[in-house]
Amino acid sequence: MPPRPARKALNAYHHGDLRDALVQAALGEVELGGPEAISISALAKTLGVSQPAPYKHFADRESLLTAVTAEAFRQFNAILRESIGKPSRRSKLSRLAQATLDFGLRRNGIYRLMFASRIMACAPKGSELHVAAMETFELVLEALEAPAVGLLRERSALQIWAALHGVVMLAEQGLLTGQLANVSREELVEDFVEQTKLALAAAIKAAGKNGR
User: Fold this and answer.
1) What CA–CA distance (Å, rounded) separates 5 from 46?
2) Any idea what the Cα angle at residue 7 is, between residues 6 and 13, rounded to 5°?
3) Greatest CA separation found in the chain?
4) What would the DSSP string read from start to end of 142-180?
5) How many CA atoms lie within 13 A of 113 on its CB side?
6) Which pLDDT belongs to residue 4?
7) What single DSSP character describes residue 15?
8) What Å distances lie between residue 175 and 17, 121, 179, CA to CA?
9) Angle at Cα 157 formed by Cα 155 and Cα 98, nearest 5°?
């Protein structure tokens, strides 16, 4: 269970500090109870500030959730970047995929905010949230470890991203217990990884032949 933020005296936050404190406190609440758990008035009480104070930084609950989602993506990206950056005998895609599965199951409240709410869909292109989400996609592209041939990498990245999301959501609903096909969630993810790598390699090879 993530520690709750320490209370500061009323009006003790410097300008800018309260915004970050609200985002971090909201992340903790989302991790425990999902996006539905967020209440600006409750966060103000937790942080020991006046009820109007949060509205100096966020116009409403949706704008707070947007900032929280962007921060969640940045934390997620840091985990993915670390997973593919360290030396390993496993492929980058395998490491990224397993890190995604672990994040989705271990921090499911945050994962649902990122991928199972309307917050991402409402983010304008070029916004803080959109940029953070596109960085996730770039990390998936990097993990494929394949040359750029048309949009083959991008298509494969979307396919593995969608597959991983499906595994996380089914597992979260208790539908991937290993009994249906005698396969664990981790093994299923590895199946998707291998299928993606083989299909992309075959597509690149075919594109090369057709280009001659």
Assistant:
1) 8
2) 110
3) 71
4) HHH-----TTHHHHHHHHHHHHHHHHHHHHHTT--SS-S
5) 31
6) 52
7) T
8) 42, 26, 9
9) 155
Q: According to the model, what pLDDT value does residue 10 have? A: 43
pLDDT, position 211: 66
pLDDT tens, residue by residue, 33-79:
888 889 999 999 999 999 999 999 999 999 999 999 999 999 999 99
* Helix 128-144 / helix 185-211 crossing angle, nearest 10 deg: 80
Rounded to 5 degrees, φ, ψ at 11 are: 65, 20
* Burial per residue of 133-153, b for 16 or more beta-carbon CB atoms within 10 angstroms, e otherwise: beebeebbebbbebeeeeebb
Output the pLDDT for position 208.
86
How far apart are the C-alpha atoms of 40 and 187, rounded to whole Å? 41
Cα-based distances in Å from 86 to 89, 106, 189: 10, 21, 20
Query: Please, which residues have CB within 8 angstroms of residue 55's CB and are 6 or more apart in sequence?
Result: 40
User: Tokens at residue 143, please?
Assistant: 């993990």
The DSSP secondary-structure symbol of 67 reads H
CB 66 within 8 A of CB 119: yes
pTM of the model: 0.87
82 token code pair: 């670390």
**For all residues of the chain together, what is the average pLDDT?**
90
Tens digits of residue pLDDT in 11-39: 455 545 899 999 999 999 999 888 888 99
Q: How far apart are CA 154 and CA 163, in angstroms?
A: 14
